[in-house]
């Protein structure tokens, strides 16, 4: 083999090596079901997966959105025949499990109540004790089940609503997609619910802020009350300061107690949950907001694999915080 050939071979190999795509961090932003999403990931070959991510999110929206008349859940609510997507079945099973563990504080059959109070796709109703009593007759997670691949309801008037786990579930599905793409470092934020793995572009563990629970209808909430660092975890925060309205001087929060039929009124202002997946984190954050501070602390101590951070107001309306022992490990000084 002569010298010229060796030089040519070396040049070709060097040129091809230089052409190999390098890993890089990609930043994707968008809107899904009216909420912003921000997704950062280290792409092994520097490929932008935004189109695939956006398509995935839109497909999920057509399964779970009660605002889309042709979505899977809307058809279920109208009692139309529909072939259930495996993702829906998995979400339903997760939901029932959360309902069982929270003694019904989390309940996907709250759809009619949510709508009647003005927090769904339907026009707000004039609420009376009689109206609430009638809606409670078609509320209750034990009145709906999955049978032979179909949703079976005790009453055709029952309507499901999975918005309380949708953002966390969407995070899980995007994480699955990124794993398929061999991404080992990413942060997924959909509507404020977060799933993180690996490290950021600077080589640090992802840092997430927890907002101070001020009424966002009144002011833009940029105040951070705590920062945590998470790796291979999901985080969800639920709070009545995020979605409410005021009528005749009274505040009505979007969290509805499935047992009473009324919006909750207690001292718990926000519940942050760390879990191994976004679906459970999102669902239990909602359950805690229904239960209130004392019952939430009690339940959180019984759950395995969960860490919690609760912000509540004391008798003097001062902000107080409770955190599980394991949550302290994630706090950033």
Can you put this structure into words, describing what you see?
The structure is a single chain. This protein has 333 residues and is of the alpha+beta class. Helix content is 32%, strand content 25%. It is built from nine helices and 14 strands. The protein has an eight-stranded antiparallel beta sheet. A two-stranded antiparallel ribbon has the order 3-4. The protein has a two-stranded antiparallel ribbon with strand order 7-8. A hairpin with a 2-residue loop joins strand 1 and strand 2 (35-43). Helix 4 (86-101) packs parallel to helix 8. The longest helix has 18 residues, at 163-180.
Topology diagram in text:
Blueprint: H1 3-19, E1 24-32, E2 35-43, H2 50-64, H3 72-77, H4 86-101, H5 111-116, H6 129-136, E3 144-147, E4 150-153, H7 163-180, E5 186-190, E6 193-197, E7 206-211, E8 224-230, E9 233-239, E10 244-247, E11 250-253, E12 268-275, H8 278-291, H9 293-300, E13 307-313, E14 319-323
Antiparallel strand pairs: 1-2, 2-5, 3-4, 5-6, 6-9, 7-8, 9-12, 10-11, 12-13, 13-14
Keywords, separated by commas or semicolons:
32% helix; 25% strand; two-stranded antiparallel ribbon; alpha+beta; eight-stranded antiparallel beta sheet; 333 residues
Secondary-structure class: alpha+beta
Overall number of strands:
14
Series of H and E elements: HEEHHHHHEEHEEEEEEEEHHEE
Largest sheet: 8 strands, antiparallel
Q: Considering DSSP H and I runs of 4 or more, what fraction of the residues is helical?
A: 25-40%
β-strand percent reads: 25-35%
The largest beta-sheet arranges its strands as 1-2-5-6-9-12-13-14
Global mean pLDDT: 88
Q: Runs with pLDDT <50, length 5+?
A: none
Our count of helices gives: 9
Shape annotation: globular
Over all CA atoms, what is the radius of gyration?
23 Å
Question: What is the terminal-to-terminal distance?
Answer: 63 Å
């Amino acid at each position: 083999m002569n010298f010229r050939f060796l030089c040519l071979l070396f040049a070709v190999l060097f040129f091809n090596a230089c052409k190999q795509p390098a890993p890089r961090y990609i930043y994707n932003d968008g809107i899904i079901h009216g909420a912003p999403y921000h997704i950062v990931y280290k792409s092994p070959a520097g490929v932008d997966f935004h189109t695939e991510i956006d398509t995935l999110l839109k497909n999920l929206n057509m399964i779970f959105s009660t605002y889309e008349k042709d979505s899977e859940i809307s058809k279920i609510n109208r009692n139309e025949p529909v072939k259930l997507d495996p993702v829906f079945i998995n979400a339903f099973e997760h939901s029932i499990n959360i309902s069982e563990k929270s003694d019904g504080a989390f309940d996907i059959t709250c759809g009619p109540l949510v709508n009647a109070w003005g927090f769904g796709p339907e026009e707000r109703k004039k609420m009376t004790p009689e109206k609430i009593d009638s809606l409670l007759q078609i509320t209750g997670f034990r009145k709906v089940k999955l049978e032979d691949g179909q949703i079976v309801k005790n009453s055709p008037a029952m309507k499901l609503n999975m918005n309380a786990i949708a953002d966390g579930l969407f995070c899980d599905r995007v994480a699955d997609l990124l794993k398929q793409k061999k991404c080992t470092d990413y942060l997924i934020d959909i509507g404020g619910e977060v799933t993180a793995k690996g490290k950021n572009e600077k080589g640090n563990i992802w840092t997430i802020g927890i907002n101070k629970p001020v009424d966002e209808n009144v002011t833009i909430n940029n105040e951070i009350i705590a920062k945590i660092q998470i790796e291979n975890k999901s985080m969800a925060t639920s709070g009545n300061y995020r979605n409410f309205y005021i009528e005749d001087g009274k505040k009505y929060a979007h969290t509805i107690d499935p047992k009473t039929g009324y919006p909750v009124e207690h001292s718990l202002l926000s519940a942050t949950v760390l879990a191994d997946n976004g679906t459970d984190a999102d669902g239990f954050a909602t359950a805690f907001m229904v239960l209130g501070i004392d019952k939430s602390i009690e339940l959180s101590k019984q759950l395995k694999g969960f860490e919690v951070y609760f912000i509540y107001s004391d008798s003097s309306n001062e902000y107080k915080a409770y955190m599980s022992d394991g949550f302290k490990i994630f706090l950033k000084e």
